[in-house]
Write a structure and sequence with these properties.
By secondary structure, this protein is mainly alpha-helical. The protein is built from three helices and no strands. It has helices at 3-31, 52-77, 91-99.
Amino acid sequence: MSKMNELNLLVQELKKCGESLVNIADELAEIFSETGKKKTEAPTESAKEYTFTEVRAFLAEKSRAGHTAEIRKILEAHGADKLSALDKGEYAAVMAEAEVLG
């Protein structure tokens, strides 16, 4: 391979690296909102969509284990004073937070 071909390949690779850096910068810009707060995205594991019945059963189990006060705090942090007032979009986050309770 001639030196010119090698140089052309290196230049192409350098351009690819530059494009990757631009893509990374774009992704980081999306992750952080204009207010500087990190956007919260549910972890892949929590991406499952839960039904009201699943959430109720799980939280009841945690409550029976002595975590009623913590569950109330979790619900309140997600804008609800009781499970039936909780927005369905919050189910995964509530489940993830409740999972770490003993």
